[in-house]
């Protein structure tokens, strides 16, 4: 691994980020003999979100068998839903085995990337210097910038405070009075773990989530060995789970008849974990299941029922140096404030630093109408720029690795086209981006994400769902199976260049 290494002056492909997206891109570039590339990563290791989210209880709510690259299967998952250390170990091992780590520059932040139309190059300013690139690929991820709540006084809190994605492992929570803000996927994993040792825990719930049972189990030794050694067995598991999950999209988004019994299962999960009818009512959601991400846990509700845990639903008015004040005027004293309030998703910080033609940032380009990208990957006004996990590529029901691999294949085919046709720049036609985006929104409107009666981070400030992919993942893969040059404005390569 490299850290603080001086950068080359120029590379053909510069990749930002070393999570699943950046790593997968690097491996596939190397395999395709496109070896003139570099990956710049702000952290000190590969892993992305799985490197950063180390909070107690961090685990995946997508089955393990779906959570690896198709070209680098993990033959040795220990359980059906993996925990963070095992996933992070898999990612690191995959990078090592692929022999790509010498192409990674760690501890280096991309500060600015500007397209130079005359030179047909991106000029990328990083904390370690400037590098130019013919092609810029962002693998910066949608869940990489922790979002802090805009609550009066939060910066004046005198105790310990940290975001769920920036856990302070040096701080011992034993016996402390802890407040956690948020009840999303992160919080419901943290609460059962810390409730075991803290003195008192206040869980600030603004909106109760739907939480289904978590069908997690350790693989018995025989099953684990069979998955590892019996030819084809792991593939069979993966295929069966994959197809099961693909039915979730139509089931949860369009068919209330299917969603209703599922909601009943979630209600039974509440009843199983909580005996007190008042607390049951407090944690029962008032919107349709699927409107927000469906969560899974067997331990969340029992933790809320513990005598040292309170669920607080009064609106937080302000934070003082010593506690949290709610709208009813009550101040609850706190030693430690944990903010599990999610990530900047529809206003991604990196969008303010990527400047296409005429110096226009991605954030400017998206400003009026919201995030949009052709096939979730390319944006007009941003030649030779590809975004992995771009707008409308997120999934709630299955593994993001499927989307990431489809996008990587698309970028590789674009690179082949650029080389074969000696192109200097490719950029999606504005009408293609507009058509794609309109199609996304048309498909979204009848779904539970719009009709389910909730506010969620899936929706942007205009009320559009610009984050999720509304169709099956095999459809996404099909649509991105080859680079469709007709949808692009192509510019010949400058003659001054080789
Ligand atoms: O964040 P979230 P997360 N005052 O945005 C509340 C992935 N993930 O980190 O619902 C009070 O979902 C907010 O309330 P409300 C997964 O994609 C995956 O938990 O907006 N409360 C909500 O309860 C997930 O969806 C895994 O009313 C405030 C919470 O904070 C995504 O990461 C595990 C508030 C934020 O929930 C994000 O999950 C963990 C305020 N001012 C995460 N602001 C896997 O297993 C926000 N909230 C793969």
Give structural notes:
The protein is α/β, with parallel strands linked by helices. Helix content is 31%, strand content 18%. The chain has 15 helices and 21 strands. The strands form 5 sheets. Strands 1, 2, 3, 4, 5, 6, 7, 18 and 19 form a 9-stranded mixed beta sheet that branches. Strand 9, helix 4 and strand 10 form a beta-alpha-beta unit. Helix 7 packs across helix 8. It starts with a strand and ends in a 6-residue tail after the last strand. The model has no long low-confidence stretch (mean pLDDT 95). The structure holds 3-acetylpyridine adenine dinucleotide. The site of 3-acetylpyridine adenine dinucleotide has 25 residues, from helix 4.
Can you lay out the helices and strands and say which pair or pack?
Layout lengths: L1 E2 L6 E7 L3 H12 L5 E4 L8 H4 L31 H15 L5 E3 L3 E7 L4 E6 L2 E10 L21 E4 L13 E5 L3 H10 L5 E5 L6 E2 L8 H9 L3 H14 L1 H7 L1 H18 L3 H6 L12 E2 L3 H5 L4 E4 L3 E4 L3 E4 L4 E3 L2 E4 L14 E2 L6 H6 L17 E3 L12 H21 L2 E6 L1 H15 L3 H4 L21 H7 L8 E5 L6
Parallel strand pairs: 1-4, 2-3, 2-7, 3-4, 5-18, 7-19, 8-17, 9-10, 9-17, 10-13, 11-12
Antiparallel strand pairs: 5-6, 6-7, 14-15, 15-16, 20-21
Helix pairs in contact: 1-12, 7-8, 12-15
The structure holds 3-acetylpyridine adenine dinucleotide (N01).
> What's the overall geometry?
globular
Total helical segments: 15
Q: Work out the oligomeric state of the chains in this entry.
A: single chain
Intertermini distance: 32 Å
Estimate the helix proportion, in percent: 25-40%
Q: What percent strand? A: 15-25%
Low-confidence stretches: none
User: Which ligands appear in the coordinates?
Assistant: 3-acetylpyridine adenine dinucleotide
Strand segment tally: 21
The structural class is: alpha/beta
CA-based gyration radius: 23 Å
Largest sheet: 9 strands, mixed
**Average of per-residue pLDDT values:** 95
């Amino acid at each position: 691994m490299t850290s603080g290494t001086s950068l080359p002056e120029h590379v053909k492909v510069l990749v930002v980020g070393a999570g699943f997206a950046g790593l997968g891109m690097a491996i596939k570039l190397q395999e395709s003999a496109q070896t003139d590339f570099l990956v710049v990563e702000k952290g000190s290791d590969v892993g992305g979100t799985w490197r950063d989210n180390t909070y107690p209880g961090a685990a995946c709510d997508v089955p393990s068998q779906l959570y690896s690259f198709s070209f680098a299967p993990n033959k040795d998952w220990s359980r059906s839903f993996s925990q963070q250390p095992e996933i992070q170990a898999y990612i690191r091992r995959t990078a090592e085995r692929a022999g790509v780590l010498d192409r990674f520059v760690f501890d280096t932040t991309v500060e600015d990337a500007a397209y130079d139309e005359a030179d047909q190059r991106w000029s990328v300013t990083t904390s370690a210097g400037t590098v130019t690139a013919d092609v810029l690929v962002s693998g910066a991820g949608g869940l990489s910038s922790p979002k802090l709540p805009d609550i009066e006084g939060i910066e004046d809190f005198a105790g310990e405070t940290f975001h769920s994605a920036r856990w302070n492992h040096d701080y011992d929570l034993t016996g402390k009075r802890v407040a956690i803000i948020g009840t999303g996927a992160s919080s419901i994993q943290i609460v059962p773990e810390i409730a075991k040792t803290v003195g008192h825990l206040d869980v600030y719930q603004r909106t109760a989530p739907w939480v289904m049972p978590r069908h997690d189990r350790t693989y018995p030794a025989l099953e684990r060995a069979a998955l590892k050694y019996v030819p084809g067995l792991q593939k069979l598991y993966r295929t069966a789970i994959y197809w099961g999950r693909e039915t979730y999209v139509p089931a949860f988004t369009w068919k209330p008849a299917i969603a209703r019994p599922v909601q009943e299962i979630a209600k039974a999960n509440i009843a199983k974990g909580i005996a007190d009818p008042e607390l049951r009512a407090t944690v029962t959601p008032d919107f349709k299941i699927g409107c927000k991400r469906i969560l899974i846990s067997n331990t969340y509700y029992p933790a809320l029922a513990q005598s040292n845990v309170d669920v607080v639903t009064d609106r937080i008015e302000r934070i003082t140096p010593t506690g949290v004040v709610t709208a009813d005027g009550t101040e609850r004293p706190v030693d430690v404030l944990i903010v599990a309030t999610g990530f900047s998703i529809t206003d991604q910080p990196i969008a303010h630093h990527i400047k296409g033609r005429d110096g226009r940032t991605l954030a400017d380009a998206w400003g009026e109408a919201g995030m949009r990208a052709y096939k979730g990957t390319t944006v007009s006004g941003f030649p030779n720029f590809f975004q992995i996990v771009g707008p409308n590529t997120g999934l709630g029901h299955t593994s993001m690795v499927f989307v990431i691999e489809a996008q990587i294949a698309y970028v590789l085919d674009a690179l082949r086209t650029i080389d074969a046709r000696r192109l200097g720049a490719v950029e999606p036609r504005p009408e293609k981006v507009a058509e794609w985006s309109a199609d996304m929104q048309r498909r979204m409107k009848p779904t539970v994400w719009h009709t389910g009666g909730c506010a969620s981070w899936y929706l942007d400030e205009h009320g559009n769902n610009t984050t999720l992919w509304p169709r099956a993942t095999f459809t996404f893969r099909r649509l991105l199976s080859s680079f469709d040059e007709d949808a692009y404005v192509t510019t010949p390569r400058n003659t001054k260049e080789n």
